Amino acid sequence: MTNPEKLSAIREQMKADGVAAYIIPSADPHISEYLPSHYKCIPFVTGFTGSVSTVVITQDFAGLWADARYFEQAEEQLEGSGFELVKLKVQHSPEYIQWLGETLAPSATIAFDEKLVSVALGELLQKQLAYQRIQFKHKDYLSPIWENRPALPAQPTFLIADEHIGQSVADKLTAVRKAMKQKNAKYHLVSSLDDMAWLFNMRGADVSYNPVVLSFALISATEATLYIQSDKLTADAKADLAKSGVSVLGYDTIAKDLQFLPAESSILIDPKRNCLALYKLIPTSVQKILETNPSTLLKAVKNNVEVNNTRQAMIKDGVAITQFIKWVKDNVGKIEITEISAAAHLKELRAAQDGFIGESFNTIAAYRAHGALPHYGATEKSDVAIQAEGLFLVDSGGQYRYGTTDITRVIPMGNNTEEEKTDYTLVLKAMIEGCKTRFPKGTCGYQIDAITRRPMWDYALNYGHGTGHGVGYFLNVHEGPQVFNATATAVPVELGMITSIEPGIYRPGKHGIRIENLVLTIADQSNQFNEFYAFESLTLAPIDTTLVKKELLEQSHIAWLNQYHANVYAKLSPFLKEEEKVFLGRMTSEI
């Protein structure tokens, strides 16, 4: 079926059910950001492959709501599909809800698959559309028209030994139960896949780039049940989990067990990380405590083993990045290098490093104007050759058995303009400003975001995405609860958190510049004013300084950069060949 035919088939089902609007979120029953192929509903219906969007279908309009990161991609991929791009004004905002309220007649019916809608979104829809007396139905209009729909992933799951992860499953369950007791919860439902992976020290390959496993958990004061396809775990793995007090049941069994929770008991549920379908199965007599999963914060604060292992992963990753930059500079103009072939070569260099499992996200290899698209992904149609001029932005990362990386570097290819030099210097200045910040305990991400942007605001420049996101330990490259963006999220930046700092400047049709390091929150000093924290730059890779306009930097920024590069050389050079050492020495020389 073509995309227009799929749209027509959905509308026929809607008409038969008396449904005025159908919502398709980008989600699965675990409310994941990255999805297994079975739940890539929006790409199936529309052809749009961006990771964040929402589709709304009525009888006379079909729209895809996406933010500025995807405007150009969406307009290209939606052409001829029957769907129109609706540009979000505010990133991650469900602006389609207001549109539905203004468009639909009173008492109209909206349908969606409740397995793909979070508890929080379901409640928001009801609250914001109550004035129109909107009715809601649970409907799946995709399964009847999705021929050869991909099956749920069946890859095996493996457990990580306690000594390689720093905390046993039993200890993690104890910490979660302590939080449950504080919230007076008798039970706790966990659906989010990164929380599941962390809690049970298990990893898998059910979702591209994220080493997670489709599973649920139900935890009480005395029992913990892992709901997973039973053939994913070996007998030895099940025995190890049993030693930690964990029983294993089938993946779909969670639905039945929720329906038979004891009357008058209570259950802790994260409304943003659990689907509405499971939530509605819980008896009305059971008190629902809607709070963030305790494991979300516990997972974000890395222990000493995780921190030390991540430092080792950064060395491996830095070696690969250094080799990659040298390869690009040595070979441009001599052999054909395209965006796609460059990304493939970088993956090969990472794969040669000990402990490499795979990429942590789809590499953004963006030459010249493509760099102005923050989430650009090269396709056979868009792929271009890298030339000895302009800027080449590469945002990439790796999954290692002992850490997750995420790094962005911009490689000047030659004949660079004054505008490119100024923009490059200001982005670097902003990145350094964030990395060298000292801040009091209790500081939140939106404050770090503003501090990082200040050097660019001085020149009336800004960027449309957040400054940083949390990063997991051999887990999701996007991890909460901390986030460095303008949203007033009241989550303090805690010791042991790993977060990215990645400011940028994007000039459509010209170039994009983003420079990114991952940082670890560490203790700095304590005095009568407060405890003060700082950042340790975990990322170890050279930052090209050939375009830097020193007059735009303050002495503190120059000192930080020179010290950073001295550390990069000291940590990476023992693992490089002689010609690579010479190259790195030039790249990291003082300015």
Compose a concise summary of this entry.
The chain has 18 helices and 28 strands.
Structure characteristics:
18 helices, 34% helix, alpha+beta
Strand share of the residues?
A: 15-25%
Sequence of strands across the biggest β-sheet: 4-3-2-1-5-6
Give the CA-based shape: globular
Mean pLDDT, to the nearest integer, reads 96
Q: Biggest β-sheet: count, sense, barrel?
A: 6 strands, mixed
Distance between the termini: 59 Å
Q: What's the gyration radius in Å?
A: 25 Å
Count the DSSP helices. Answer: 18
Structural class: alpha+beta
Specify the helix fraction band.
25-40%
**Number of E strands:** 28
Contiguous low-pLDDT stretches (5 residues minimum) are none
Please give a structural write-up.
- This protein has 591 residues and is α+β, with helices and mostly antiparallel strands.
- The strands form 8 sheets. Strands 4-3-2-1-5-6 form a 6-stranded mixed β-sheet. A 6-stranded mixed β-sheet has the order 12-11-10-8-13-14. Strands 21-28-27-24 form a 4-stranded antiparallel β-sheet.
- A hairpin with a 3-residue loop joins strand 10 (216-220) and strand 11 (224-227).
- Helix 13 (304-331) packs across helix 14 and helix 15 (418-435) packs antiparallel against helix 16.
- The chain is globular.
- The mean pLDDT is 96.
Topology:
Elements (H helix, E strand, L loop, with lengths): L2 H15 L3 E5 L15 H6 L7 E4 L4 E5 L4 H7 L6 E4 L8 H8 L5 E4 L6 H10 L6 E4 L19 E2 L2 H4 L3 H14 L4 E4 L2 H7 L2 E2 L12 E5 L3 E4 L7 H9 L2 E4 L3 H7 L6 E4 L6 H4 L7 E4 L3 H7 L3 H28 L7 H13 L4 E4 L4 E4 L22 E7 L1 E3 L2 E2 L2 E8 L3 H18 L3 E2 L4 H13 L10 E3 L8 E6 L13 E4 L2 E4 L3 E4 L2 E10 L4 E7 L17 H18 L5 H10 L4
Parallel strand pairs: 1-5, 3-4, 5-6, 8-13, 11-12, 13-14
Antiparallel strand pairs: 1-2, 2-3, 7-9, 8-10, 10-11, 15-18, 16-17, 17-20, 18-19, 21-28, 22-23, 24-27, 25-26, 27-28
Helix pairs in contact: 13-14, 15-16
